[in-house]
Design goal:
It is built from four helices and 15 strands. It is α+β, with helices and mostly antiparallel strands and about 250 residues long. Strand 5 (about 95-100) and strand 6 form a beta hairpin. The chain is globular, with a radius of gyration of 18 Å. About 40% of the residues are buried.
């Protein structure tokens, strides 16, 4: 985890960021229009309280036809879940689905079951094959990433950045969750692949304004190195960190 210290950006002074390791990345594929998802959102919220867990909620858009258009839903999030579906040889997409460290997938409705998988997998990056750090300097997010050795089987590590709101409340007026007020943790606003590893260390600088894109409230950013097949199927996550953008 990355934690900001020092003066805020408004003072125009570069900030010092102390980095601590993120041991696990939990990605929940969810929808405000799915009656089975609020329970998984509660599980994700509990996981987010763990200092070594990066918990992210990707809202998909294929449940919108029921009558409620998910306020965070996007075809981009659905595409990421579809890519995982190919990776795990799934015949259909479903919510709530959790993908843990890019290595295992499961129905994300029971905290104990997810915690057991986390314990079995062990921390990402324990082999030291990848390193990742980030810092906020003025109005820019500066990322450094490197690999010690190539990935086997023709796959390629890529650097991914994800932006998210830390929390959100949404009143649902249609669909399966009609009348409910949903509390959501770390709903993803955007994600993108920044670069593929070329064999050399990566140094990337991004204007923070392009990450927040006018968002208000508390928001954050995650960066991670993930193995990707040549056909775009995501694999194991090798290293990850997060940064608060609302300081």
């Amino acid at each position: 985890m990355l934690t900001l210290t020092g003066p805020g950006r408004a003072e125009g002074i570069d900030q010092t960021i102390a980095s601590t390791k993120v041991d696990h990345v939990v990605e929940l594929f969810t929808s405000q229009g799915c009656s089975s998802c609020p329970q998984a959102e509660t599980v994700l919220s509990k996981l987010s309280e763990e200092a070594d867990v990066l918990a992210l909620a990707y809202h998909v858009d294929y449940w919108d036809y029921i009558g409620w258009r998910d306020t965070y839903g996007s075809s981009q999030n659905t595409a990421r879940q579809q890519a995982y579906g190919k990776r795990f040889n799934l015949s259909t997409l479903f919510t709530p689905q959790m993908v843990i460290d890019g290595q295992q997938q499961m129905v994300g409705a029971e905290y104990e079951s997810v915690a057991e998988v986390l314990d079995d997998l062990g921390p990402i990056g324990s082999g030291g094959s990848a390193s990742l750090s980030a810092r906020i300097a003025g109005d820019n997010l500066k990322i450094r990433a490197s690999m010690k050795e190539p990935v086997d089987n023709g796959s390629l590590p890529v650097l991914i950045v994800v932006t998210y709101d830390k929390s959100s409340k949404t009143q649902i007026t249609q669909g399966e969750n009609l009348g409910e007020t949903l509390t959501e943790t770390n709903p993803v606003r955007d994600w993108r692949i920044l670069s593929a590893w070329s064999g050399e260390p990566m140094k990337i600088s991004l204007p923070i304004s392009t990450l927040t894109n006018g968002a208000s409230g508390e928001n954050g950013c995650a960066v991670f190195i993930q193995v990707m097949s040549r056909t775009g199927e995501p694999g194991p996550i090798l290293s990850a960190a997060r940064v608060d953008l609302d300081q």
